[in-house]
């Protein structure tokens, strides 16, 4: 498989960090450092920072994403944001199924699938997160579990729509813990995801799919992870809040 056929994408996940004023400052810091990137660069920011992020990234090579969206277009869902609300602002990406959503906010594979569908219907690019807990890795069920998460999340998604999806493999035990998967572990599971997509669709769909690794990726370990044949990019939490570190990861992904 030729990895160069696929888009390399580095996306920051800011989580619940940065006020609008701080968001503007952070983007201004990132902008000059990634302007010559030879990969796609995205910042996924809290809802309240979206306007500022869209304004600050106008005319740059940085895309803007949200960190979730609801599956209904509108209605009595206090505290939720619809995919149409995001696209109406000009938002291009959305993270769906992050493990923090699954762990702390009761997201299930079924609601993840509903959110994926709604995001695609609105024209958003989706960063779909899958990954195992440490107990599941120790039980030896990582491949099975990640494959199942992928299958459920992609239910009802056509081969054409798959082109708008990036899958992020994020072992939960590696997120925000400073414990990174080894490059081999990351590649092994990314390859399982690609195989699963091949079974669901076909070889061309699998070959064209961008798969990111996420979990304590930083300026130091990025290159080794991103050099793996099935790792096409990264979803970056902590290091995406530091312009120089984020830019170093972007550099490592540039082909
Ligand atoms: C994430 O939030 O998706 C993530 C990978 O976080 P961190 O890089 O901080 O582990």
Low-confidence stretches are none
Main pleated sheet: 8 strands, parallel, barrel
Overall mean pLDDT score?
97
What percent of residues adopt helix (DSSP H or I)?
40-55%
CATH topology: TIM Barrel
CATH homologous superfamily descriptor: Aldolase class I
Number of helices: 11
Using the CA coordinates, give the radius of gyration. Answer: 17 Å
Global outline? globular
Gap between N and C termini, in Å? 16 Å
The CATH architecture would be Alpha-Beta Barrel
List the helices and strands and how they pair.
Blueprint: E1 9-13, H1 20-34, E2 40-44, H2 50-57, E3 62-66, H3 83-89, E4 93-96, H4 99-104, H5 109-121, E5 125-130, H6 134-138, H7 142-153, E6 165-169, H8 183-200, H9 203-208, E7 210-214, H10 222-226, E8 233-236, H11 243-253
Parallel strand pairs: 1-2, 1-8, 2-3, 3-4, 4-5, 5-6, 6-7, 7-8
Helix pairs in contact: 1-2, 1-11, 7-8
What do you see in this structure?
The structure is a single chain. With 255 residues, this protein is α/β, with parallel strands linked by helices. It has a single domain (9-253), classed as TIM Barrel (Alpha-Beta Barrel). The chain is built from 11 helices and 8 strands. It has helices at 20-34, 50-57, 83-89, 99-104, 109-121, 134-138, 142-153, 183-200, 203-208, 222-226, 243-253, and strands at 9-13, 40-44, 62-66, 93-96, 125-130, 165-169, 210-214, 233-236. The protein has an 8-stranded parallel beta barrel, surrounded by 5 helices. Strand 7 (210-214), helix 10 and strand 8 (233-236) form a beta-alpha-beta unit. The protein is globular. It starts with 8 loop residues before the first strand and ends with a helix. Bound molecules: phosphoenolpyruvate.
